[in-house]
């Protein structure tokens, strides 16, 4: 048996090509059934940044061709269009690759955690459809375990590195580490607003107000947060009541200008106001940072924090790789033993069959031998066979990762 992985990711292929090969989750069952027609066991990992096919096959070269063909057909591509962007790993390289993926060190954002759930989803889908046997299942489960271990024992996923999360962390740091009882105004209901909402959901019980030019979107996001929606026309009123404002609208002009913020601050009786602008182009006039009581952080400030956080994560790479290398070796030791155990069993079964046949011939000639002597001869012949097979057995176990030596042993013992 051989482990294979074929795929492409954000490092090897442009977005346009990744989109073509990306497998729709709703069609995953169909794709898995198609995959099962050309490999013994198979699983598919498809995310926004990668599409990978994992397989157990009997013949590596045949399996590799099958995986290339599967991805080419799935993406409706010509082989020459896909080939320059495709990677193919087998055995130890395949194991180390998946362990790295599950640990978040092969991701676009170093240490991200979402991929661990995606690997788990790939395993569950393959098990439900029935394309994942004992060997592939153990491989994927071990990858999930390694991913958790790396995150538990290193800081690879510490120090958040998304703009929205860093913005929320900044707000927490300026209010004593918690946002409980703080009133937060979120000016956005788009993707950035949703990511910010996700980060806010882990921050206790802040009072969140959502406003957007599209009121229905604001209502939907506010419901998710257990907050309130406010029409965009009441922005100035909401601003006057807020402790923290996080804005990311994508508007081509300032949403909060100097005059508006200055007027609002006159109503606030010296209550400080934290403004976090994660929009590009910026939503908040940078001049407002000169207004007394106002603290403004824009995308440039946050990106500096993100870069520092990424450096902190990168310092954990050596620790992560040490764990991955150790777990790869441990898994391969188990995997290699799968090939050797059947050979050892066949070799011993054949030797035992020869021993018993010869013993029966001999005993048939020794008519007057006692039962005690028969038992003694039986024990002696078993001991001879065991001693004769001890060295070949040890050689087989030691040669489990050496294909050439295994082939020699197969020829010598016809197993």
Question: What keyword list fits this structure?
Answer:
415 residues; 57% helix; 10 strands; 4-stranded antiparallel beta sheet; alpha/beta; 13% strand
Question: N- to C-terminal separation?
Answer: 15 Å
Largest beta sheet: what is the strand line-up?
A: 7-6-5-8-9-10
**Count of individual helical segments:** 16
Mean pLDDT: 87
Query: What are the secondary-structure elements, in order, as H or E?
Result: EHHEEHHEHHHHEHEHEHEHEEHHHH
The number of strands is 10
What structural class do the secondary elements suggest? alpha/beta
Shape: elongated
**What kind of sheet is the major sheet?**
6 strands, parallel
Q: Helicity level, as a percent range?
A: 55-70%
**What is the strand content?**
5-15%
Spans where pLDDT lies below 50 across 5 or more residues: none
Report the C-alpha radius of gyration, rounded. Answer: 32 Å
Describe, in plain words, how this protein is organized in 3D:
This protein is of the alpha/beta class. 57% of the residues lie in helices and 13% in strands. The chain has 16 helices and ten strands. The chain has helices at residues 15-21, 28-36, 60-74, 79-82, 91-103, 114-129, 134-153, 163-174, 191-200, 215-225, 235-241, 258-267, 299-314, 317-365, 371-398, 403-413, and strands spanning 2-9, 41-46, 50-57, 87-90, 183-187, 207-212, 228-231, 244-247, 273-277, 294-297. The strands form two sheets. Strands 7-6-5-8-9-10 form a six-stranded parallel beta sheet, sandwiched between helices. Helix 9 links the parallel strand 5 (183-187) and strand 6 (207-212). Helix 5 crosses helix 7, helix 6 (114-129) runs antiparallel to helix 7 (134-153) and helix 14 (317-365) runs antiparallel to helix 15 (371-398). It starts with a strand and ends with a helix.
